[in-house]
Design brief:
This protein has about 450 residues and is α+β, with helices and mostly antiparallel strands. Helices cover about 30% and strands about 20% of the residues.
Length: about 450
């Protein structure tokens, strides 16, 4: 018998407020210099959980009620996420308006999603998200929205959309760790509690945000998203291809290897469509928490990242090898971190951080003179450790975003591979799927 198409039915939508009111002292949260530069969009993350054993389920009661209650208590510490952003004042009004909380039921078992191996239509996963993925920062937009979807088997998914205005993936995972740690009263205050100190370290400068031209809705947007999986064996093979020596000083990053492989494929697609590859501009956000200002606490909340730009002249990419692409990317990230380390310990020279954003905004809208690509890595973050009392996630994903030339990279469940969520137009996606390197390394 033919299984009906997956459908998620929402049956509850409300706002969850902090368990205790935010004090008047903390009412207005000024964003930092790094927050100013963040794009006006929400960040979608979905965690998938198997059905908990009955004895555990009984211990914590109803899953949805338990998550609701612990979310409310977590918001009392992460109070800006329950507020609303006021764009013209560059601050969050921490008015306890609340987080959007949605409950839904899916007509499929979790195994039917996990059994795919790779996701043929990432857009279908957006059903597990609480809202549209797109532009935010209007006065009524929640800073965080959450959706809990239960499957027929008893498993469930937690879909979250965070406003990028005050959250990068480091801050997001700190929030998730805090929320999950409340499962049985073992909340470790000193480890997971947020510190809102980035604005005092890096004050506002009245800068333009990164303009990614993200629409508020996906309606009418002709973007194709595909899920490419690079297993540990493929990563090892790529390391050999770039000449990795096990006795060498460092292991080539799995992220940079995948970025290099995809960038090379994009350039060849560009060449096939235009006779010669256009100038190519690629940016990668680089987290600075563990690289710059080591005295900065890891639980400092807000955006703390910069952009590492990599460039190719027209036709240049046609004549260089995979190891060359890898070296360009590696050197760009290394130079960016080195420059930021020098700059951020002083009050001057912030151009090192600002200029890549301005250059990105220029190159994004060049009437096809420059091919612009945005790669972001969510690898090595802690979302696979988020145990809300029912076990750790069996999978984590993003959804489909209404934009093109975007790649989001995440760890696979084992932690050694990379899952790349690629967004292109339909023609180039078909060409990418036929690329010999993609066929050789991705599943």
């Amino acid at each position: 018998m033919h299984k009906p198409k997956m459908k998620v039915t929402d049956y509850l939508s409300k706002f969850v407020k902090p368990s205790r009111p935010t004090s008047t002292v903390d009412r207005y949260f000024k964003i930092s210099f790094f927050d100013e530069l963040a794009p006006s969009m929400n960040i979608p993350l979905i965690l998938y959980y198997s059905a908990p054993p009955k004895d555990i389920n009984g211990l914590y009661g109803n899953i949805c009620d338990h998550l609701d209650d612990t979310l409310s208590r977590t918001l009392s510490e992460f109070y800006p996420l329950a507020g609303r952003y006021i764009r013209k004042l560059l601050l969050v009004d921490c008015n306890d308006q609340g987080v959007l909380y949605v409950l839904g039921k899916a007509n499929v078992r979790l195994s039917e999603i996990l059994g795919l191996g790779h996701v043929s239509d990432p857009g279908a996963l957006n059903s597990f998200l609480p809202c549209e993925v797109g532009e935010v920062d209007e006065v009524n937009d929640p800073m965080l929205s959450v959706k809990v979807t239960t499957f027929e088997c008893g498993g469930f998914a937690i879909g979250m959309c965070f406003s990028h205005r005050i959250s990068d993936m480091g801050a997001i995972c700190n929030f998730i760790d805090n929320w999950a740690s409340r499962r049985n009263g073992i909340h470790k205050h000193e480890i997971y509690s947020p510190i809102f100190n980035l604005e005092t370290c890096f004050t506002q400068r009245g800068l333009p945000e990164l303009d990614v031209r993200m629409p508020r809705s996906s309606v009418g947007v002709k973007t194709i998203a595909r899920h490419f999986v690079f297993k540990a064996e493929a990563i090892s093979a790529m390391r050999e291809k770039v000449g990795f020596n096990e006795n060498g000083p460092c292991i080539p990053s799995k992220v940079q290897l995948v970025v290099a492989l995809l960038w090379k494929a994009f350039v060849h697609v560009d060449q096939a469509n235009n006779g010669q590859s256009k100038a190519s501009f690629l940016i990668q956000p680089v987290g600075l928490r563990d690289k710059v200002l080591r005295e900065l606490p890891t639980n400092s909340c807000g955006n703390f990242l910069t952009l590492a730009p990599s460039r190719l002249r027209p036709g240049e990419g046609e004549n260089i090898t995979f190891p060359d692409f890898f070296k360009i990317l590696r050197d760009s990230v290394s130079k960016t971190v080195k420059d930021c380390t020098k700059t951020l310990t002083h009050e001057e020279g912030f151009e090192v951080v600002i200029d890549p954003y301005l250059e990105s905004n220029r190159n994004m809208f060049t009437n096809n003179v420059v091919s612009f690509y945005f790669f972001t890595s969510w690898c090595k973050f802690s979302y696979y450790q988020a145990d809300f009392g029912y076990g750790k996630p069996v999978w984590a994903s993003t959804g489909k975003l209404p934009t093109q030339n975007l790649v989001i990279m995440m760890d696979d469940h084992d932690g050694d591979g990379v899952e790349a969520w690629v967004h292109l137009d339909q023609k180039r996606m078909k060409q990418l799927e036929e690329d010999s390197d993609i066929k050789a390394y991705a599943i």
